[in-house]
Specification:
6-stranded mixed sheet, Rossmann fold, globular, alpha/beta, Glycerate kinase, domain 2
């Protein structure tokens, strides 16, 4: 597993079967006239946001079957894009300038609905904010500032999406920014697609440090720093699931802020009302940039499949290296099956998703 999809980024060429991977038609279930389709993809990392993926697929669906009832429901699993998914579901985006991962001010945002806020680590301390890797210097300070802003907005439930971080500071910067801020009476929910401990061979430094540019020697330095920090703050929390997420921000939140850890996709599906959206649907379309062996381990498409119950689910993807049935899918439609040139897929994915949406409509909807 990875700290969100830092290593899964823009899809790369894989062997194509030239056409969608589809299970036998007798497994599809009955076709329904004038059906409802829910389009619930994650982003195509490095290429397209989840709302834009959903919109492109929906255009193709509606063009092929004009009277189709299409509901757009972009999702995320705790990484970058979690705030976008919340906003698409009716949350309001709020902006703040915060301390970036290298100390310079950066514009960041969180989402609010009522007394619930959604905050992304990636917005304030994400890898995408760096011009160059800085594994030893990146800080989570801005995350603490965003959490304070959410508290100042009157929120009593805060979802903190832990993916896409640039830092491996154990959350020390976040705690420094929070100071004596109290989280008493606040339900702080950590949303992540990984559940690694803080330390050791499966921990934040060893597994995710290299993704953030750390050399083997720097990984050792980071591990020693995390171990010393954990000893001061609460060593009994270092082995808890999720403590190693987001460079150890999970640890600080669990040990000091009284947070609880949950799989990110489950949290997002609840926040965005997926159960209500999928009720009465005849088909769900999910997806992400790369469908592979990692997808079963906390990634959004597999969470969508599990939450869809008996409703058949198909997926769109940049590339796919697994069989649909391995993920509980009825079919997979990959961009590389439509356009074998990877460069073109990355540069202009929306027209290809439009084409794929039309294919899905023609193959799954009744005449």
């Amino acid at each position: 597993m990875t700290d969100r999809d830092d290593t899964r980024g823009p899809f790369v060429r894989v062997t194509s079967t030239r056409g969608p991977r589809v299970l036998p038609e007798e497994t599809w279930g009955p076709r329904v006239a004038h059906p409802k389709v829910v389009v619930a993809p994650d982003k195509f990392k490095g290429s397209l946001t989840a709302p834009r993926v959903a919109a492109a697929v929906a255009r193709g669906l509606r063009e092929a079957v004009p009277d189709l009832d299409v509901r757009l429901h972009p999702v995320a699993d705790g990484g970058d894009g979690t705030v976008d998914a919340a906003v698409a579901a009716g949350f309001v985006k709020a902006g703040r300038w915060v301390t970036g991962p290298l100390g310079k001010p950066v514009p960041a945002s969180f989402a609010v609905r009522g007394t619930t806020a959604v905050v992304e680590v990636a917005s304030a301390a994400g890898l995408a904010l760096l011009e160059r890797p800085a594994p030893l210097d990146a800080t989570s300070h801005g995350v603490g500032e965003l959490l304070k802003a959410a508290l100042d907005s009157g929120c009593t439930t805060i979802v903190l999406g832990l993916g896409g971080s640039a830092c491996t500071d154990g959350g020390a910067g976040m705690l420094e920014a929070l100071g004596t801020t109290s989280f008493e009476g606040v339900d702080l929910v950590l949303a992540s697609d990984v559940d690694n401990p803080l330390l050791g061979p499966s921990g934040a430094a060893a597994v995710y440090g290299p993704q953030k540019g750390a050399t083997p020697e720097q990984v050792e330095v980071l591990e020693a720093r995390l171990a010393a920090f954990a000893q001061r703050v609460g060593p009994e929390h270092a082995a808890r699931p999720g403590a190693g997420a987001a460079g150890g921000i999970g640890f600080a939140a669990l040990a000091v802020l009284g947070a609880r850890f949950r799989p990110g996709i489950d949290v997002v599906l609840e926040l965005t009302g997926f159960a209500e959206a999928v009720a009465g649907a005849s088909l769900v379309v999910t997806g992400e940039g790369s469908l592979d062996a990692q997808t079963r381990h906390g990634k959004a498409p597999y969470g969508v499949v599990r939450a869809s119950g008996d409703v058949p689910v198909v997926a769109v993807a940049g590339q796919c290296s697994v069989e649909p049935g391995d993920l509980g899918l009825k079919a997979v439609y990959a961009l590389l099956d439509v356009e074998p040139d990877v460069t073109r897929c990355l540069a202009r994915p929306e027209p290809l998703l439009h084409v794929i949406g039309g294919r899905i409509a023609r193959e799954w909807m009744s005449e």
